[in-house]
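This section describes the prediction task in plain terms. A model, or a person checking by hand, is given the sequence of a single protein chain and must write out its three-dimensional structure as a string of tokens. No templates, partner chains or ligands are provided. The sample shown here is typical of the held-out split.
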Amino acid sequence: MPYTSYTDLAHEHLEGLDYQRNWRRSPVSTLLHLAIHGGGIEQGTGELAEAAASGIHDLYVFDGMKASGNAELHITSTAFDEPNALALARAATHTVSWHGCAGTAPLTNLGGLDYPLRDRVGLALSQAGFVVQLASPELDGGAPENICNQNTRKAGVQLEISTAQRAAFFVGGDLSRGNRGNRTAAFQAYVGAVQSALAEALVAVGRG
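The expected answer:
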């Protein structure tokens, strides 16, 4: 059974061995990049979030570190209640939540309740040559209790990126931890497209 809270997970697993939490609060930004299924849970999502935050914005990564079986560390987005992640999410004005989903075709599913920002990110990705679509209900991040929608505006963006698309971000299509520092031009183009969309949107609203 999946864990229904961080407390339950922490009772069963050892931090620093099975998982680790990494977070940073920015003194200059109200935008949060969030990867609650990072490390070996949904490979590549933590690296994408960190690159997109670029040392400027708020960042939170929950990193599965087990040699195998990291899927058991998955807490759903509606139940993810790790205190530092919740504090960052509730203080942010804008949130991008990075996720991985199954799929043999390179594809990004766009979700979250921040529809204008979602669509702006989707347009930027499409213009950069990436395939995007609106997420199906099971992936759309539309629940108000989803952590991506817990910011001050009660609306965030959720990116569900297929396995094939994430594999294209790393040399040789290798998603293992040891290879995730070896990033392709596609990784840089993808992150750059998301960053450009966010910069346009946040300048427009005067925050971030």
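For orientation: The two ends are 38 Å apart (CA to CA).
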